[in-house]
Write a structure and sequence with these properties.
Helices cover 41% and strands 16% of the residues. It is an alpha/beta fold and 343 residues long.
C-alpha cells in the first residue's frame, strides 16, 4: 500500500465510525463493557468519536503526513507497540502513526482492552486486504526493530531494561492540571468537568489537580461539578468515592466534597479515583515556575487564560481528552521518531 492508500483506508475508518450502523461493533463494545466495567459503552463511543473526528479526517491526515515528508512506499521496519489500558483505545495514535509511516506494527494489547482495537484492524483489512500485512497482534514482542511502550513508572523501568538497546519511546505516568483565574462562568466550569470526569478521570489527559487563585470559593466549584453526579451510580467509581471519604474522615484530613468528587488541598499531581487535588496560587508566574519544574509529570494544562511563558501544551476547558494528530503523549513527537527509522 502506498501512502495515499494508507491514508484513504484510515479516513474510511473515520467515516465508518461516525456514520455507519455497525451491529458487530456494537457487540464488541458491549463485550468490552462486560469484560472491563470501567470501559462503559458511553466511554468507548466517546473515544471512538474523538479518534474519528480528530485523527481520521482525510485532509488532516494528508497535511500531517506531508509535514513529515512520509515515504510513499512501505518499509520492512517492525515496530513493537506495548499498549496501555487505562482508557479505551488509548494507544490508537501509536498504531496510526506506525501505519501511516509505512512500518509494520507488532502489537501487545493491554489485558484491560483486548477487543476493540482488533475489530478496528479487521475493518481495515476487510476494505484493503493489504492492510493486514501491517498489523500483527502478539502475546510477546519479538523480532522488532524499534519499540513504543506505554505504562506506569514501575513498568517503565522494566521497559528500559528490555528495550533500551533498541530505538524506543518509553512513556511513564503523567497527569494533567487546570489553572483557574476565578472569573470563570458556571458554564465554563461545567465544561471543565469534562476534563475531570471523562473516562472516570483515568486518563493521563484528565485533570487531576487544580491551581486556584488565593481565596477561591471551592464550594461554588463543587456546586457546578455536582451536575456530574450520575458518575456515583457506577459501582466501581462509587466504591472508590466511599473508600476515599472514609479514609480521609478517619485520618481527620480536611476535605470538601459533593455527590461525586472529593477535593483535597494537596501538592501532588496524581489524585485517587473520585478525588481532585487543588493548590492555591498568588501569581501566575509562580504557577509557571511550579509547572516547569514538574514538566516531566504533566501531560497537558487546561486553562482559559494566557499563562505567561508556559512552555507546556495548553488547551481550553473541555478539550483535554480530544487530542489531535500533533498532540503526542509526553510531548515526544512519535511521527518524527518513526519517520527517522531506516531499514
Amino acid at each position: 500500500m502506498n501512502l495515499s492508500d494508507r491514508i484513504a483506508v484510515m479516513a474510511r475508518l473515520g467515516r465508518h465510525l461516525l456514520e455507519a450502523q455497525d451491529e458487530y461493533l456494537e457487540a464488541v463494545i458491549q463485550r468490552t463493557a462486560h469484560y472491563n466495567p470501567w470501559f462503559t459503552k458511553e466511554n468507548q463511543w466517546q473515544a471512538l468519536r474523538a479518534i474519528a473526528e480528530k485523527m481520521l479526517d482525510a485532509e488532516a491526515l494528508s497535511r500531517w503526513a506531508q509535514h513529515y515528508n512520509v515515504a510513499d512506499a512501505p518499509t520492512a521496519i517492525r515496530v513493537g507497540l506495548v499498549m496501555a489500558g487505562n482508557i479505551p483505545l488509548v494507544g490508537f495514535q501509536d498504531v496510526l502513526c506506525t501505519f501511516i509511516a509505512g512500518h509494520r506494527a507488532q502489537i501487545k494489547l493491554s489485558e484491560k482492552d483486548p477487543y476493540l482495537l482488533p475489530y478496528l484492524l479487521q475493518l481495515l483489512a476487510s476494505w484493503a486486504p493489504q492492510a493486514a500485512e501491517f498489523f500483527d497482534i502478539v502475546e510477546r514482542l519479538s523480532g522488532f526493530d524499534a519499540v513504543i511502550a506505554t505504562g506506569s513508572n514501575n513498568s517503565a523501568r522494566y521497559f528500559h531494561a528490555y528495550f533500551g538497546q533498541y530505538p524506543h519511546i518509553i512513556r511513564r505516568n503523567r497527569n494533567s492540571v487546570a489553572v483557574l483565574s476565578g472569573c470563570e462562568s458556571d458554564e465554563m466550569l461545567h465544561t471543565l468537568g469534562q476534563d475531570i470526569f471523562s473516562y472516570f478521570g483515568l486518563g493521563c489527559r484528565n485533570v487531576s489537580k487544580l491551581y486556584l487563585p488565593r481565596g477561591y470559593d471551592v464550594k461554588k466549584l463543587l456546586e457546578v461539578l455536582h451536575e456530574y453526579r450520575q458518575l456515583i451510580l457506577h459501582e466501581k467509581y462509587k466504591h472508590n468515592f466511599d473508600y476515599n471519604f472514609a479514609l480521609l474522615t478517619l485520618n481527620k484530613t480536611p476535605f470538601h466534597f459533593n455527590g461525586c468528587v472529593i477535593m483535597k488541598e494537596d501538592p501532588a499531581f496524581d489524585s485517587r479515583i473520585a478525588m481532585l487535588h487543588y493548590e492555591y496560587y498568588d501569581s501566575l508566574p509562580n504557577v509557571t515556575t511550579t509547572l516547569h519544574t514538574a514538566s516531566d509529570k504533566i501531560q497537558v494544562v487546561v486553562s482559559q487564560q494566557l499563562i505567561p511563558e508556559l512552555k507546556l501544551p495548553v488547551v481550553p476547558f473541555g478539550q483535554s481528552q480530544q487530542p489531535g494528530l500533533f498532540d503526542y503523549p509526553d510531548g515526544v513527537d512519535t511521527m518524527a521518531f518513526l519517520t527517522a527509522l531506516r531499514p
